[in-house]
């Protein structure tokens, strides 16, 4: 057994290794092997759990062991994406229940086990899939398992396979639950761990659980289970919230979750309730403030996503399998059928009369069985809805066809239903309203194969995933970069205008997720945590279709019983399904139908997918070999630059956490770096302690930015890397004398983080890139080593688009003319950049009603408060350009050049500042790139301010944005301590996040600068918070809140300076 | 979707005889500039028509429905233009030329008699006002529609078609290298597109390839006239391809012979081609076999 098992495990391990998921090496040793393996597993598991906990505790710096791979440390759970991977260890650890079971089985089983090593393997595999969940959640399953064990025994007795099945069975329910619960638990644990007090306890618990798991002590399973389920225990402190999930059959699934629960906790709960194993095709959706349907991000807290107080969600199909017949279980197909019926009735999935009738007849067969001539007449049919508009004629046709299905089982009928539905041209196409470059209304359809462009109902273009090199969005624009055709020399970028920023991001996310799910074998894990990324770091972190299929092959449970309540659903759907939807669908017909998914249409509909917003995307960063995903929140210019810069390609985005967050300040704030810190900290106790706190904070932010668990691990790793960089930074600082006071914080920690973040960030967005560049430059002068790091990081991150580098240059050339002249200017004349910079600042100001609060908690607030995003962008552009020029995208290649450019840039920056505001002027140039969040509107301002550019840009800007007249007020509060230390020390951009809500945009930029004077090191944190809102915003309150938060976050630091820059629009802007 | 069958499974063909006024169309001269004053040989056209219908009926084995010729409608033989049929739905089109719109009446009747669901594109519908569509600009592959945007077919017409056949993707493509989409391409099998070798045709083909989710085999023929063929998989499960004879496209016949296991039926349509017509222009192909 053991040997066999071992082999199996090994096999499994390989994939895991490949995935690099240290977390869950699960050796699902069967009963006998169990022990031995258990031990091993324990070790391994220890690591993994440790990782997980660490990740949770990342702040504590415990995370040492595993770097990036662990990124998903807690995610080990998530590994579900990498199902097979985490089998053995994870199982052993996590599957205390199993162990118990196994033990019980083992008693019976040893013999059997011997006989059937394969079984174990099978089990293991299964475990691997559900393992994580199982482990943690064995508890949940406990009830189920309890019942199962018996079965298992029986099965075991019967044969080896049965055992597997048993295990599987137990696991399955357990898995479902377990995965859900385990993950959730883990999440919770992590969250809690974040919370100081709670965190510790939880950690202990978790650790215990981990230990238990590690120990593979079935004995403790309870504890583990407890732990897992225990959230309730913990709940003492935790607030519970009632969620209402509308299931596909129209029923309501109430579920109580912790207020801080992450999306996946609820999702797994739902899947558990459904007894669904193949859950990767599904997701939870909700309506955002704009009534747009969004996907719940499983890796993020629910409360940060959901806007409505009632926590209303819907369970929907997120990825429509192109070939439903490859689904393993009937229940999965059944749920898909339910979804498709919704889609059909809502008009989202247009069908011909005949198809409506045929599909309806299969639905009848599945729900009612054979046609009964006696009792079935048209009456019974009128209760069903088969089409948006259903005629008597259609009903007759349905009945007629129904008669021909005699003898067909419900499962067969579902299969037939799907076989026909999958051929519909709009099957699985997620439509989004947009405009093309000429302002013509079109629809963007995202599907398994790529991106479809519709005009009305006509398909006018199609971009298969392999043809797309890069996906990005900027403001309300969505861009795809197309691989050059056979006869074409240059890549081309196609841009679409979405109704607003959020919708652009939504499309981007959906594309990222669909591409990852359908095109990649495995989601690309963020090679390195990207701490400071400015852009969206969003990536799909779930399993890909390939992975879920593979995992499905391991499902070995008897077909679960489920009740088909579709008829109810249908009727409900009729009721619930907003008439509007149907009508709209019909009216708007083709397009609208497609649109059906759009929030507006969907609003009325119950659970209709509202697929558009597939926010959920799990956080895995996907780097497609060919496809780059970027979300550009920044200005278009930035986008261009991005394209140009190689670094961009390499780097992954960081995403501003704020996706769907409501308008609450807190959320917004959280979005901001500072807030982000908080958020991370949230789980934990309040503000970190003195010096360490900083480090912690930074780490936290980093971790947040990157992603939950994995982040922590990564951070640690990165931290190590960073250290070198730190040294560099320090040197730089020395060079630039400016550090004033600073608390000696864990220097290393802080800086490292910063460095790391910088490096990482680049991937995400242009800004990031800029930062990197800046960093690189800095580093370069100081030490080569640092450069290498940066490079290495970059490479890792970016590797996907090979072409990009060379291409980028080309693109730049091309684009500049098109989009922005600025870029060209930049290229030509770095000096000119200076002009542009001013613009950026201006831009910031210009924003509708922006209140800019700059906080410098640290003694030395660098004057260079925040480099305006525009400025940064510009810089980035310049930098980028240089990079581009450089043969390799890498900074290393052309350090000198870069540095020079930077200097220029810096100068430029200074100028702009001067132009912009006194405060800004004061601020020293920040050699390093500063992250900037770009306010949506800036351009107008730019026009005003920038002279040279104005002429050029004005045109562009005017097109997009109406000119806005603004009032500008700048108020600076400085603590006496503060020196005017205008010297811009090399600031390290810690975080920059942009939260955008309909009415409000809050951007927080945090620069952490560490200065070493003599033996003292100063840490200076500059935060720039830009609050932009269309509606009436209480800026004072917002400011107060921001300051308060900043203080809370850095209790050991003092606020030395607050600069409030307030701009008020006199005229309304057209944007947004 | 209800129609699962691959392209080519036809049971019926609807044709319309060659009227005495064949070729007596003023406007049509615009389309046959090359032919100059070439006079139409009515008898020859009718003979060729007879050969075609005979092949469809006796060789391919389709049930042939022939609508009598109407002298008032000189172009009525181009029956392909006035209806687009898929499954059991027939879309009666709105030809570009006003004088051709009355051609639809007889066709509509036949469609109804065949129990097809007749969808009107009528001019009176506000939505489709201004919509024009002719079947010779529509390429149905069995999986999707390509609508060539040409002088005779506009986007509105394509939208109506898309609204009619909702199960299928309807893609619009520019018509390059020919007047009508089917002048440059046609179906040569369930997944085979025959296309001419002209640059314009290649351009159109590229667009089609970009727009489709499916993969089609492409049979390139050196002569434009050879790009229009009629493929039918007859009731006898044999693949038939009606193609222009060697006299009309000497260099392309070898290409057709690459189609293995096909029964090639050289069918002349030299007279029709003088008017811009082609083999597919003569017939509407229908499948009335239940497919569930």
TrEMBL record, chain A:
One of its GO terms (biological process) is actomyosin structure organization. GO terms for molecular function: actin binding; structural molecule activity. It holds the Pfam family 4_1_CTD. It comes from Oncorhynchus tshawytscha. Residues 9-27, 185-217 have a biased composition (Basic and acidic residues). Residues 672-683 have a biased composition (Polar residues). This is FERM domain-containing protein. Residues 241-522 form the FERM domain. Residues 1-217, 585-614, 641-718, 771-859, 899-922 are annotated as: Disordered. Transmembrane segments: none annotated. It comes from the Eukaryota. Residues 138-149 have a biased composition (Low complexity). InterPro entries: Band_4.1_C, Band_41_domain, FA, FERM_central, FERM_CS, FERM_domain, FERM_N, FERM_PH-like_C. One of its GO terms (cellular component) is plasma membrane. Residues 816-843, 900-911 have a biased composition (Acidic residues). SMART domains: B41, FA, FERM_C. It is found in: Cytoplasm, Cytoskeleton. Keywords: Actin-binding, Cytoplasm, Cytoskeleton, Phosphoprotein.
From TrEMBL, chain B:
InterPro entries: DDAH-like (IPR033199). Gene3D superfamilies: L-arginine/glycine Amidinotransferase, Chain A (3.75.10.10). SUPFAM superfamilies: Pentein. GO terms for molecular function: hydrolase activity. Keywords: Hydrolase. It comes from the Eukaryota. Belongs to the DDAH family. PANTHER family: DIMETHYLARGININE DIMETHYLAMINOHYDROLASE (PTHR12737), N(G),N(G)-DIMETHYLARGININE DIMETHYLAMINOHYDROLASE 2 (PTHR12737:SF16). This is Dimethylargininase.
